[in-house]
Amino acid sequence: MEPREIIEKYLGSGGEVLFEKILSQAPQKADVIVLLQGDQLDRAPGSASLFHQGFAPRILISGNNKLVGPNTRPEENDFPLAALKQCLVEHKVPEEVILIDDQSFNSLGQATNVVKIAKENGWSTLLIVVSAYHALRSFLAFVKQARDQAWDGKIVMNAVQFPWDTIPSGRVKTAEEMLEVEVEKIKKYEKDLATIEGGLEYFKRA
């Protein structure tokens, strides 16, 4: 089954439209590039590339140092934040422009804390780097937090896309299989997320 068919099967045609909008979103100038921890180093080179292309003057790594390594989460082996920072430095990102949020233990925590940090710093645009299979749920979490925290800034997703039949780093399932896990989580954690309709409405306003 194609990724868009998976989304439509579980979330309807509106979900499929929103998914395609997110995956095709072009990078935009932002106050910060947000590198969401997950899939080991898969998302770091793309974050560094966006920085060097001048899309933002800083990178915020959002995650934690507790739920890392093997056997801390089922079918997941994440790297500590220092490894992500080191990868950015190796890709010529100056250490002084790398910020760390180490208090985010899941997707809701990342959205909550990043929006809070954005408000505290007066940032108006976030450029969020995430794996393609996770992009829809992450976007919906950020849209809800923007609303709940009364932050009227702009959310721009940058989905790192690898072939759907490959296994993201630190995982045991393919990206396509992870997408099916994600749509189930969208249903399970719907109270933490904007609705599909709310996500589509956000794109109309953006």
TrEMBL record:
GO terms for cellular component: plasma membrane. InterPro entries: Cell_Envelope_Assoc, DUF218, Rossmann-like_a/b/a_fold. It holds the Pfam family DUF218. Residues 31-170 form the DUF218 domain. This is DUF218 domain-containing protein.
